[in-house]
Amino acid sequence: MGNWIVNHGLTSFILVVWMGINIFLFVWFYLFYDLGDQFFYTRHLLGSALAWARAPAAVLNFNCMLILLPVCRNLLSLLRGSFVCCGRSMRKQLDKNLSFHKLVAYMIALMTAVHTVAHLLNVEWYNNSRQGVYDELSTALSKLDDANGTTYLNPIRITDLIPTYFAFTTIAGLTGVIITLSLILIITSSMEVIRRSYFEVFWYTHHLFIIFFAGLVFHGAGAATKNSISLSLQTWMWVIAPMFLYVCERLIRFVRYMQTVRYRRVRSIRRPSLPSGAPRSERNLHPLRLIVMRPSKVLELQLVKSGFKMEVGQYVFLNCPAISQLEWHPFTMTSAPEEDFFSVHIRSAGDWTDKLIDIMQKLPEGAQGPKMGVDGPFGTASEDVFDYEVSMLVGAGIGVTPFASILKSIWYKFKESNPKLRTRKIYFYWLCRETHAFEWFADLLQVLEKEMDERGMGDFLTYKLYLTKWDQSHADHIMVHSDQDIDVVTGLRQKTYYGRPAWDKEFEQVRKENPTSVVGTFLCGPEALAEVLEKKCVKYSDVDPRKTKFYFNKENF
């Protein structure tokens, strides 16, 4: 339990508070409408469906206020910077912004379903009361006209109305239909399989949130009952502040988009650049290179933007108008803060990336690339890597990109003998399904190996590369060259492992070698691996503050 509290205590507390507020709002408004004397006659017409419609509406107001805040990236980066003095636990909560965004969305979906069903029953019972199906009091209440500026008790004013017609001919009904349809499209297109395989579908349908919020604000504007109007005003007050913040967020993005991003020089080579202080034979002197690797198809862009400052592990959003005016895609930067440019590695993973790679391949030598909009940089969990004495870095496939930035920065810090470097040991694990994926990172590891040996710090960096998929011809090739001093796959002194890491063994070894350290475990990879590592961090952390503790951090964007 103590280990669980170390890694999840604050997160769980925040979720309990959030859920508690939801429950409180639901119960409070349910009792308000179910027991309040001012709704006595409305309850006679509708029964408990009145309270079942209003209570979810109150919860919806609260969560619609929250839903935009986790995606205000500039706001989060500002808060993250201000929490530097507040400890890593608080900053870790900001790194879970997308998880909270999804959780709030699920609550909105649930409350929308309850709210919609209750209102469908309300319309049916209103219509029946107007037609005299129920008792005489219901019929008499339904015939009451407006008086003294109040609204109809029963909004249905004719006896031969089709309930569906009512839903599509009133502002409240029509906006309710639009809001619900928008929400269904947003949620269904956000499923993992669609987001990964058809990102453009996810991207465009997600922008239906504009219609959703516009409909939400006007949903009660045409309400026919007094309590509906009051709840409409509450909706406006709940969402106006986050809507303003998000508009500011988009304005900042537009300003950044208009800023010039320069390509220095473009040419095709096979491997990416090394730190600029590396020997001439080991690096490329040009501050920008475009790399297209076959068959792994990884593109490296090195870009320059006036006033751009970054930290290790941060990411940017890129927009290429030649491909799409509206699409922005996130990419972790692979450059170090000490360099005078920033770089990203882009793997072929969909229509947008394929088109970008195709455009770059067709550029003549030395030509400028297409206009590129850059929004960022934005903070991630990897920024905190140097706050730990010991760090475990785990990357899967292209998920190694934030750690390229970290390792390059370490190289510069050693080169400059930076006294502020607190980290004294790094364990690096990279899992790949194919040998070609190792190509672009091997040079950097070779330079780091050499640098550490020259400084007598060979133990500072321990790295293990794992190939998780191979065929028989590859296995035969390995056997033929097994007696060589360097690895046949990567050219490094450290031989490649085949299969997946035995994480219990790795964590036990780290704990044994660092018996009194705080270990930061950083992952950029799939959720399945995240679940495994998170459990290992809990399992191998010691409650005794004098002994080893593991803190889990995951990239989310």
Automatic annotation (TrEMBL):
Its main location: membrane. GO terms for cellular component: NADPH oxidase complex. InterPro entries: Cyt_b245_heavy_chain, FAD-bd_8, FAD-bd_FR_type, Fe3_Rdtase_TM_dom, Fe_red_NAD-bd_6, FNR_nucleotide-bd, RBOH/FRE, Riboflavin_synthase-like_b-brl. One of its GO terms (biological process) is superoxide anion generation. Keywords: Heme, Iron, Membrane, Metal-binding, Oxidoreductase, Transmembrane, Transmembrane helix. Residues 261-384 form the FAD-binding FR-type domain. The chain crosses the membrane at residues 12-31, 51-72, 100-121, 165-189, 201-224, 236-255. GO terms for molecular function: metal ion binding; superoxide-generating NAD(P)H oxidase activity. It is a multi-pass membrane protein. It catalyses: NADPH + 2 O2 = 2 superoxide + NADP(+) + H(+). It is found in: Membrane. PANTHER family: NADPH OXIDASE, NADPH OXIDASE 1. This is NADPH oxidase 1.
